Hints:
12 helices, single chain, disordered N terminus, Formate dehydrogenase/DMSO reductase fold, mainly alpha
Amino acid sequence: MEGLVQSPHWPFLIDVYFFLGGLAGGAFVIATVALLVDAVRYRDVARIGYYLAFVALLPCPIILIVDLGVPARFLNMMMRFNVLSPMSMGAWALAGFGLCAFLAALFTFLEDTRRREYTGGKKLVGVVGAFFGFFLAAYPGVLLGATAQPFWTNAHALGALFLAVGASSGAAAIALLLGLTGNRSPHSMAALRLITVLALLVQLLSVVVFVVSVQASGSMKATAALAMLTSGPLSVLFWSAIVVGSLVPLLMGFMGMKRSSLGLTAVASILVLVGGFLVKYVIMAAGQV
Length: 289
């Protein structure tokens, strides 16, 4: 099959790339939604979100170039646009999103330094960049499904799972930074808390669909890889990601809706970020054994 990835044995740096790319995409989309809904009330969310998306994205091209070994290979993927190739589409999405993230961060920086509004430019860049952001966040799940590994090809909802992790980690990172800088509003923190809760619910549902689909696949290799997650050498990390990195911050999010607390939000945000990385890491690791 054209576009099938035959050698999915990626190093740890690719796990970092997938996590940072998803976080950047999630933060950018959240910032754009905040800007479109109410540019004044949620200005702090849009501001931090655009800065965060750009900073989180900066290491991604470097990681890809290091993984490919030769910079010319990355340029070669950019020169050959192929909608049937997950690698080609991923490279183009990264480039398109990188341009939008840079422009959004630049507009935000100019607003901070020159005290002028660039809302119209940010909205245009934000809408275009949000498309690439959605793609970049869900793309790793699609890419894994395009490989020859039974564990990934028989797993459904991987795209939804990676997208939800991007949304939850993006919202958590924005909330954490707002809390640390002290430049936050109750409306913004409440909105971020709601986004995080909804994303975690989708994340947990996607994990259930993922596990059930692999069990029902009938593939011995796929079920053996799943057993590594649920009861094997990766089970501690897997269940830590589910319980400590998803369920606990979800409960803390519900608690925060009744009684907000900066400390509670900070702890929940850190747990979401750690849990989001671990979810992607163990799924990547199990499929490569």
